[in-house]
Design a protein that fits this description.
123 residues; mainly alpha; 3-stranded parallel β-sheet; 6 helices; globular
Length: 123
């Protein structure tokens, strides 16, 4: 939707395919998009998801349990956490270890598919 012109200078005008690079180098992300929140969290970017439906999705609960995502129903409830993230210059480096632990505990989808395909060819 159209935003107020005073915010035009903040609009990303680059190639949409570069958004992951932009996220990776961001200090933090505040958004209402579950997809962007998941992507940023797995990249180790401090992420605040403000979305009333997010607490109904398991992936957000899982990311939150690993300390990779902060979830709120509204912006006002997120203010203290926003200030915390903004003022902690080491938070992003601390999250890198949490991302490693999270990924180590995730199933390897490529391995799973390879085993599945190999098994079906054997039958």
């Amino acid at each position: 939707k159209k935003i107020d012109s005073q915010f035009d200078k903040y609009l990303f005008k680059g190639n949409p395919w570069d958004i992951s690079d932009l996220l990776y180098f961001a200090k933090f992300l505040i958004c209402d998009s579950g997809t962007m929140a998941q992507e940023a969290a797995v990249l180790g970017v401090p992420t605040i998801l403000i979305n009333k439906l997010g607490n109904k999705c398991g992936v957000f609960s899982e990311l939150k349990s690993y300390g990779l995502l902060y979830y709120f129903d509204n912006f006002n409830d997120a203010l203290d956490t926003i200030n915390y993230i903004y003022n902690d210059d080491r938070l992003k480096s601390k999250l890198k270890e949490k991302v490693k632990v999270y990924l180590d505990n995730c199933d390897d989808f490529n391995s799973f598919m390879l085993k599945l395909i190999t098994k079906s060819k054997e039958n």
